[in-house]
Amino acid sequence: MKKIFNFILIVLISASCSDFLEENNKGGITNEDFYSTVTGYETLMTASYATLRTTYGSTPWLLLAGTDLYQKTRQNDHLSLYEYASLYPSDGYVKEFYSNCYQAIQIINTALYYNDAPTALPDAKRTQYKAELRFLRAFYHFLLIEQFGGVTINDEITLEPRMNMPRNTLTECYDFIISEIEDCVGDLTASTLTRVNKDVANHYLAKIYLTRAWDLGNSADFTAAKTNAQKVFDARGAINLTYLDLWNPTKENNTEVLFAIQYDVSSIASTSSGNTQQALFGQYMGGSETNQKLMLTQLIPAWNLHIWFPENDARYDVTFMLTAYENYFDYYSVTDKSTLKVRAYWPRVWGRDYTQAELDAWKATHTVLSTFKCYPFKEDEETYRADFQKDFYTPPIKKFDSPASRAYGSVNNSASVRDLVLARLAETYYLYAEACIGLDDYATAHTYVQMVLDRPGNALTGTLTDSLATATSKQEALETYLIESGKEFAGEYNGRWPELRRTGMLEYMLEKYNYDVNKIGALDFNTYKLRPIPLDAITLNEGIDEEDQNPGYANN
Questions:
Q1: Which CATH architecture has domain 1-122+143-168+522-556?
Q2: Of 249, 264, 287, 478, which residue is the least packed, with the fewest Cβ within 10 Å?
C-alpha cells in the first residue's frame, strides 16, 4: 500500500491541539481531569465546530477558483488555481487546505478520545455528541478526497508524532466515510438547527454516494444517493421560500438551510474575525472613503454567469447589487431609497447593450454623486472584459451581505457575521437530479431541477425552465444541469470545483466558458482533475517518494 505522511502537518496539529488544551487548562489540572467535567468537555465540542470557521472563514480557494463561474483577479494573483498551468505541489493554498482539514480531524479525534470522560454528561447527550463528531470527521475526510483522491484516513488521536501513516486507496476512503456517517446518523437529533443533525447527514450521504458513483463507476451508488436525498425531502418537504427570503440577512437558519457555520456579532473576537464571503465576489469599490463594502477583488463573477440568467429570472436582482448608494449598507436600512444618492449603477438589458439614452432617462429620476460610476453589462464577452481592471466595474454579489456589521464592512474585508451556508435543501434536489443524470434518466432530472426553479417568486413573468428534459446525451444533460446549478448557487461554499470534477465536466466547462483558460491555450486535465499532494507531505516522509504523487505532478 502506498504511504503518505506529512510530518510537519502532524507537528502543526499537535501544536494546535496543545495550544488549545493549554488555553483551557488554566487551573493546572491534567487533560483527563479537565475533560472529565462537562464544562471542560464542551470546550472540545466548541473547538470541533470552530474548525469550520478556520477552513471556510477566509477564502475557500480550492472550492471555487478555476471554474466556469469566476474570472481571475485583476492583480493576476492566485494564477495557479485560476489558470492551472503553474499549479505545483509547493502551492501554498493547496497546502493550507490540506493542513486545515487534518488539523480539524485531529481536534475532532481528541474530542472523540475524551467522549467517555465527563461522567456527569447525560448518556443521551454523550451519544449525540459522539455522532456529531464522527460526522464532522467523515466530512473533513470527504473534503480531502474531493480534492486529492485517496488520502490518509486519520481516525485516532495523535498523542505523539507518527512517522509512517499510509495513504489509503480511494475505495477505502469512501468505505470509511460512508460507514462512519451511516453508523452515527441514528444517534443524531432530527432537526436541531446550528448543529449536525439527521438532515445534514442524509444530505451529505447523498453527495458522497453521488461522488463515489462518478469516481468509481458504480451505478448502484446513484440509486443510494437518491435514497438518501429522499430522506431529506421527507423531513423538509418542498422548496417554499422565495429567493429573496432565503437570503434575507434577518432570516438566517431558515427552513431551507441544512448546514451552516454560525456567526454572530457577539461571537467574534474582533471586527476582523468574521468571515470574508461578502467581500469576495466583485471588483474593488474603495474603502471607508467611499462608504462601500471593502472588496478583496477576488473570484469576480464571470461574464457567462450573467449571461446564463434569463430576463425574467428574479434571482438575478437578488444575487447581484445593481445599485450602490452613497453608503452601501443603506440599501438594507432605508425604506424609501428615492431619498438616497447613487454611488454606482450596473444596468442590464437582455439581448443588446444598454444605451446612453436609457442612462440619461434613468438619471433624470435619480440623484447621483459627483463620483458616480455606471458600467452597463456588455453582451459581448471581449468588450465586457476590456475594462475589468477598473474599480466598480462589475456588480458585486450581494446575497451574502452582512448589514449587522456595517460599521466594519467598509474598513475590513473579514468583518462579515453572516452564517456561511454549506448545504441547503435546493442542493439536495440538485443532487437527486444529478444522480438521475448518472442513470440516464434526464426527464426525472429535469423534474427535480424544475422543483427548484419553480420556487415562489422566481419568475418575474411566466415560468423559468431548463432544457434537461430534451437532452439527448449525458454531456448535454450535465452541461444544462451545471448552468442551472451555477445560477442557483453562485458564490456559495458547497463547492463548484468539486462539482465539475466529480461529474467529469471540468475540462468541458472550462474550455467552453472560462475566458482565462481559453486565453492561455490547452491544458492537460488528466493532471488537473486532482490537486497535487503538498510537497511537505512527501519530502518529509521517508516512506514515500515522488512516485506516490498524484498523476502529472511528480516532476513539478
A1: Alpha Horseshoe (1.25)
A2: 264
Give per-residue pLDDT as tens, 288-303.
Answer: 889 999 999 889 999 9
Query: Hey, what's the torsion of the CAs at 325, 327, 330, 335, to 10 degrees?
Result: -50
The distance in angstroms from the start CA to the end CA of the chain is: 24
Please give the C-alpha separations between residue 11 and each of 17, 144, 533, in angstroms, as whole numbers. Answer: 10, 19, 18
* CB-based contact 434:222 (threshold 8 Å): no
Amino acid (one-letter) located at 147:
Q
Are 457 and 242 in contact, with CB atoms under 8 Å apart? yes
User: Domain locations in the chain?
Assistant: 1-122+143-168+522-556, 265-418
Q: Rounded to whole angstroms, how far apart are CA atoms 523 and 500? A: 16
Q: Give per-residue pLDDT as tens, 329-381.
A: 999 999 999 999 999 999 999 999 999 999 999 999 999 999 999 999 999 99
The dihedral built from the CA positions of residue 217, 424, 458 and 409, taken in this order, carries a sign that is negative
- Residue 127 and residue 112: Cα distance in Å, rounded? 11
DSSP codes joined into one string, 139-170: HHHHHHHHHHSS-----S--SS--S--BPPPH
Do 461 and 350 touch, CB atoms closer than 8 A? no
